[in-house]
Design a protein that fits this description.
3 helices, alpha+beta, 5 strands, three-stranded antiparallel sheet
């Protein structure tokens, strides 16, 4: 199950059917963004169930653009850490210990 709602052009905002196989807008040739029904997802996804899942790219499969589990692919990705970015936080004027970077 996926809460994917539609695809949206990153430039002009044109919407496309979520199940259309395309990556670029027909009009301006810009990348399409996947848009999700996050309200419905927040009501339907059980946090405890998610915590018990494998820490891989499909942990939050409901928020991925693949509707059928048969088409899930993986290269063995695992959970990657959040790394404290103290120097960047200081340079940007953020309080210490508030800025983290996802180390992919």
């Amino acid at each position: 199950m996926s809460f994917l709602s539609y695809l949206e052009c990153s430039q002009c905002g044109r919407r496309y059917d979520a199940d259309s196989l395309r990556g670029l807008c027909d009009d301006c040739r810009r990348p399409l963004l996947a848009r999700y029904d996050l309200r419905a997802a927040s009501r339907a996804i059980d946090r405890a169930a998610v915590q018990g899942r494998a820490r891989d790219v499909w942990r939050f499969h409901e928020l991925q653009p693949v509707r059928d589990a048969r088409f899930r692919l993986s290269l063995g990705e695992a959970g990657t850490p959040l790394v404290r970015a103290s120097r960047l936080a200081a340079a940007l004027g953020f309080p210490d210990d508030t800025l983290f970077i996802k180390d992919e």
